[in-house]
Amino acid sequence: MSLIPAYMQWAVLNRDNYGQLVTDWTLNTLAEYGRAKSEESAHLNFKFLCTELQRLAVCSFLEWSLSALVIIPEEQVKRAIKHWLKSVGNPT
User: Fold this and answer.
1) Residue 91 pLDDT more than 70?
2) pLDDT at 17
3) What are the domain boundaries of the chain?
4) Which of 42, 24, 39 is nearest to 92 (CA)?
């Protein structure tokens, strides 16, 4: 989980240079973490470990992916944005 920000940065910096395997994995992972309803699920609690600013950064990354990437799971990313936005403003 601690490497998620590094994967997000890599995806932004390398979007034109390499295949999308890392980017796809990152988007899928953020979508799964966004669906987490409880911080009790240790393998899914990334969202609950993030500060509000970090959750906003995840939302920005997901929104960026919709506009900057050619091949993405668009509906999944849109749902992930909604899930992550729900957590903004809520205490962790």
Assistant:
1) no
2) 73
3) 4-87
4) 39
Beta carbons within 8 Å of 76's beta carbon, 6+ residues apart: 27, 28, 31
Residue 37 has pLDDT above 70, yes or no: yes
Q: Tell me, what DSSP letter sits at residue 70? A: S
Q: Residue 1 carries which DSSP code?
A: -
Residue type, 68: A
Contacts of 19 (CB under 8 A, 6+ apart): none
* pLDDT > 90? residue 24: no
Q: What are phi and psi of 90, to 5 degrees?
A: -95, 140
What pLDDT was estimated at residue 42? 66
More confident residue, 67 or 41: 67
Token pair, residue 30, equals 């953020």
3-state secondary structure of 85: helix
Widest pairwise Cα distance in the chain:
38
Distance CA 73, CA 79 (A): 10
